[in-house]
From TrEMBL:
NCBIfam families on file: sopT
Gene, per the UniProt record: LOC115750292
Predominant subcellular localization, coarse grouping: plastid
UniProt biased composition (Low complexity): 1-15
Listed name of the protein: sulfate adenylyltransferase
């Protein structure tokens, strides 16, 4: 992926991280906020945006980077071998990764009960100085009765990965009840069966939660060929500074990039330039943690994104490609706040929000789980996200008269074709081509190759997806 590596110019600083045998798996969009010309400034109830140099500060004023410094790692690792052990699931490890790099700043470990309750009930945390930062999804670690008994009166535990490698130490611990039903109801707005994250990480999890201060023994690595794309918030801030970015606009996705997405991203940059910014940089930030079974796996998505850059759909000089390590909840307006908040910590001051962000179909009924417009409305009002700018955009669709993706014109609806994700997947599975101009040819071929890899074998069994 040499061409895509050029999109962020250099990989993360060389470090021998902890190796884990786990691989993260795995819209017409709209943008929104208040703003006026750059000179107007922004304060109080007014609507203005001031162009200024420097990246937006992380929540809490500094990144909570929780990886143990190199000189102390051997001693901490030896200590971990003397402590009660808690085994991490794959999703637990992804949260350790998220916490270790500061995506959840100012959070410094798995949530204690006070933080958990604030997150569930307020979607925010109040800091010691009275400031409020957004936090909409619980970042918690579950343990069962046997774990709780084994921990006993210890104030520390060691966290071990699935291969029994020591990964982290959790100190000053607090163990409290895991109210699963309340957590599910408040995070997803439903307790209907079939929610992917719930079935993977909550239903069969322990009845207790353990919070505390986290020290991660080594940087988390997956050894899947994609670690060079996993830039931490600190790495990203260094790269944006190196490129002299005066604005950073983030675009999260968990799907292949089509030309409608590219239209939104390139038009966002054009608008930022018109507002007076000199060098706005795009953070193209695919989600790299847990995703549901029918989503395209991360390795294939990254290969598709590479082709998008190779074909010139996006400009590598103004695009930084990186993987966001968080697992996916599919919790709609609640989760999109987490996605936005994490990008503030990476240096983004603009966020592109799509139609039905972080949404999914209802697991039982034949309808969407969330109102398609609620995500962008919630982002405009969410506590602790006041510093983030969300830009308004029209819907993109395929314009049959121009043979390309364009912004939908309601005065001539007959000229537009909406190609849903379901339709796109069906075409790719059947090795059919979408209309010219919907997706770059190289990117489409990757998608067809992925679904071809899932074709039933001679014995009728569908193989598991192979890495790209």
């Amino acid at each position: 992926m040499a061409s895509m590596a050029a999109a962020f110019a250099s990989t993360a600083p060389a470090a021998h991280g902890h190796r884990h045998g786990l691989r993260p798996h795995p819209p017409s969009l709209s943008l929104r906020t208040h703003f006026s010309p750059p000179s107007a400034g922004r304060r109080g109830g007014g609507s203005g945006l001031r162009v200024r140099s420097g990246l937006i500060e992380p929540d809490g004023g500094r990144l909570a980077q929780l990886v143990v410094e190199e000189p102390l790692r051997r001693a901490r690792t030896r200590e971990s071998l003397t402590l009660p052990r808690v085994k991490l699931s794959r999703i637990d490890l992804e949260w350790v990764h998220v916490l270790s790099e500061g995506w959840a700043s100012p959070l410094r470990g798995f949530m204690r009960e006070s933080e958990f309750l604030q997150t569930l009930h307020f979607n925010a945390l109040r800091l010691a100085d009275g400031a409020v930062v957004n936090m909409s999804v619980p970042i918690v670690l579950a343990v069962d009765d046997a774990d709780r008994h084994m921990i006993g009166e210890s104030s520390k535990v060691a966290l071990f990965d699935a291969n029994d490698n020591p990964t982290a130490i959790l100190s000053n611990i607090e163990i409290y009840k895991h109210p699963k039903e309340e957590r599910i109801a408040r995070t997803w707005g439903t307790t209907a069966p079939g929610l992917p994250y719930v079935e993977e990480a909550i239903t069969n999890a322990g009845n207790w939660l353990i919070g505390g201060d986290l020290e991660v023994l080594e940087p988390i690595k997956y050894e899947d060929g994609l670690d060079r794309f996993r830039l931490s918030p600190a790495n990203l801030r260094e790269e944006f500074t190196r490129r002299n970015a005066d604005a950073v606009f983030a675009f999260q996705l968990r799907n292949p990039v089509h030309n409608g997405h590219a239209l939104l991203m390139t038009d966002t940059r054009r608008r930022l330039l018109e507002m007076g910014y000199k060098n706005p940089i795009l953070l193209l930030h695919p989600l790299g943690g847990f995703t549901k079974a029918d989503d395209v796996p991360l390795s294939w998505r990254m290969k598709q994104h590479e082709k998008v850059l190779e074909d010139g759909v996006l400009d590598p000089e103004t695009t930084v490609v990186s993987i966001f390590p968080s697992p996916m909840h599919y919790a709609g307006p609640t989760e999109v706040q987490w996605h936005a908040k994490a990008r503030i910590n990476a240096g983004a001051n603009f966020y592109i929000v799509g139609r039905d962000p972080a949404g999914m179909g209802h697991p039982v009924e034949k309808r969407d789980l969330y109102d398609a417009d609620h995500g962008k409305k919630v982002l405009s009002m969410a506590p602790g996200l006041e510093r983030l700018n969300i830009l308004p955009f029209k819907v993109a669709a395929y314009d049959k008269t121009q043979g390309k993706m364009a912004f939908f014109d309601p005065s001539r609806p007959q000229d537009f074709l909406f190609i849903s994700g379901t339709k796109m997947r069906t075409l790719a599975k059947n090795k059919e081509s979408p209309p010219d101009g919907f997706m770059c040819p190289g990117g489409w071929k990757v998608l067809v190759d992925y679904y071809d890899s899932l074709a039933p074998a001679d014995n009728g069994k569908v193989p598991e997806a192979v890495p790209a």
